[in-house]
Design goal:
Blueprint: H1 7-12, E1 18-30, E2 34-38, E3 46-49, H2 57-60, E4 68-77, E5 85-96, H3 112-117, H4 126-148, E6 152-153, E7 159-160, E8 172-173, E9 200-202, H5 207-217, E10 219-227, E11 240-249, H6 253-274, H7 276-290, H8 303-312, E12 316-319, H9 320-329, H10 331-334, H11 351-362, E13 366-372, E14 388-396, E15 400-407, H12 412-421, H13 430-437, E16 443-449, H14 450-458
Parallel strand pairs: 3-5, 6-10, 12-13
Antiparallel strand pairs: 1-2, 1-4, 2-3, 4-5, 7-9, 8-9, 10-11, 11-16, 13-14, 14-15, 15-16
This protein binds 4-amino-1,4-dioxobutan-2-aminium adenosine-5'-monophosphate (4AD) and magnesium ion.
Magnesium ion binds at residues 401, 404.
Length: 478
Amino acid sequence: MAKRKKIKEILASEEQGYETTVMGWVRSFRNNQFVALNDGSCLSTFQLVIDFENAEQAELKRITTGAALKASGEVIESQGRGQKYEMKVNNFEILGDSDAEKYPLQPKRHTLEYLREIAHLRFRTNTFGAVFRIRHHLAYGIHKFFNDKGYVYIHSPIITGSDAEGAGEMFHVTAMDLNEIPRQEDGSIDYKKDFFSKETNLTVSGQLEAELGALALSEVYTFGPTFRAENSNTTRHLAEFWMIEPEVAFNDLDDNMDLAEEMLKFLIQHALDNCMEDLEFLQQRLENEEKQKPQNERSPMPLIEKLRFVLDNEFVRLTYTEAIEILKKSKPNKKGKFQFPIEDWGADLQSEHERYLVEKHFKKPVILTDYPKEIKAFYMRQNDDGKTVGAMDVLFPGIGEIIGGSQREERLDKLTQRMEEMHIPAHEMDWFLDTRRFGTVPHAGFGLGFERLVLFVTGMANIRDVIPFPRYPGNAEF
Ligand code: 4AD
Ligand code: MG
């Protein structure tokens, strides 16, 4: 059964005049003769030419959009225009019928919103085929990048008792009968009676466990699903997303920035090297999509040019304090165009501010560092000024924050003091503090939101369209 040649291989090869077998799904069937077959190995369809005069009528009728087909014959130079090769079919077999009237994917353009409702079938469209092939290559590229550098891949737990970000946006995990929750005398929930004998949640980040690994293996990374119960209904947030978190012993904030920039450039180059057909398709798609938009809302460059631009330019590095000065004096701030006006040092930056810096002011990716400690997590290294921490956020055009990271507080006394100030229960984090008690070293790391990277590389507009089955408020279908 599995003896088949992939369409990608046929189209890439210089060979012709040989017999082979292909299998895939029918995209269209014209003139009772020409089948456009797609097997997902690449964007292109392969043209099958059926000898309809000698085929059985009943069988020909079963070649419909969406049907699965096996065909054998000779690969020859194409007689028609638009493709290099085609197959002169000797025999074909319908592997799976598809009722053309009921098939939800008609051979026409569907909106992304509609396709999201039929996410189980959207893999079969050109757009989602391209997006998910690129997603695959980026995932592979991440492992290649870190493996080639000698990093150890750590599998951080998905169920955990800790809140790595201290932000409290967690999904609870329980095996309790919710109709009969065991309670203690004071009425509080008795987690001792739950599966793990303690309160647990889905992880928001694998960082704390990665730190434990880094303080023994020197250079580690995680790449796994993370979960946030934040009620953010935006085109940049998911409740379940994948994060890549390198953590490196003996690295300071500068090393951390260098690593982030090198990694992002490697991944973009990797996509250019491996996904050109899909990128060209998505570039054209974006251009068509944006034709209806006013000029000032269109992307400033075509997709591939944008990717090359990031490769060719050094990221701008500046401190939060410098950024606040720029934002304060900016036109949109003075004219009251920001939804959240920037008045004082200490303000948390919103995506409108990040995007102003990247898209309007510098017109380049930006790394912002040294944020006020009040708006950052407890584990970030405290600077000597007593006000800021060694944080870094990488901001990308069209995306805003793509990476968040920091140098870590390796000094036990400073760390425990900050945890106390932020009401983080130190007794529950003894395992974490042990790394500071025994052989602590400076170290640093960051988290790359995988879907935000895929969003950037594919030029798609909504994060829900770059993960196969998106989870967001009110939606956990499939
Ligand atoms: O900035 P964040 O919250 O950082 C951390 O979780 C650190 N523990 C990372 C580290 O230092 N090891 O998240 C990191 C990145 C963000 O920059 C963003 O790209 C992505 O994760 N992200 C999300 N992506 C999709 N949906 C969400 N709800 C996201 N929240 C964060
Ligand atoms: Mg962040």
